[in-house]
């Protein structure tokens, strides 16, 4: 997933200085961003007041969009560095191609996990013959310094483990929940889970008090720790929780995101996560010169050009502005 903003601004994130060490209820409002020709997304992270949740550094929610007779998602080849991308669908399909030669069609509740490591490029598009509706989320996970130069690779897991309780089915995307692990490769203590709630469900979900958490509402009407949550919004929950009260006022879908607070300070600009202005500038130059990031074969169109770097030097700061 690309950040297609042509006026891309640097986002400084990471470090424990602004992590809420106790439970909080901080509602994050999205901003609307155009993604390609026909897809509009709601960007929840990075947010004006909150940059990361654990190692989760970027969250877009899109749909449900009626794309019958439309091209749907069309994201040309673009680069990534220093992160993992997570493709997650509730409806529709996304065709993934990347510079390692991977080709996969990701369908609802299948994990498309791309580890950029030092450098990768990829494209994403709705298949020519596609379902009427497109609804999902695209997320980035920051790689820690010890692993941010790993060899790029792609994983596609079509059968993920689940945890069930009365009124709840939780699909484990990354990390583990209630002792059940995902097969997806991770590089920091992290959790991503898709929660399907039945109308009337009322339960407490077990959590790790050392993690910070947020909930993204995908569909339906819910109360999360007594806070009403509508689709396309995110509730930051802080740390120190051993459980999370959930109540569904309709059939509903949520994404639970969490992890140990990310200690390292980062610079995120366009589709790169780095540690210095010089590193980001070099990555942009490498992409524009056609080196390092490889080539995506099979996409019918030109790769994306990188936006201009902002004036001055990009500096690391903290987790909130």
TrEMBL record:
CDD domains: cupin_pirin_C. Fe cation binds at residues 78, 80, 122, 124. The keyword Cell membrane does not apply. Gene3D superfamilies: Jelly Rolls (2.60.120.10). Binds 1 Fe cation per subunit. Residues 298-321 are annotated as: Disordered. Residues 193-292 form the Pirin C-terminal domain. Belongs to the pirin family. This is Pirin. The lineage of its organism: Bacteria, Bacillati, Actinomycetota, Actinomycetes, Kitasatosporales.
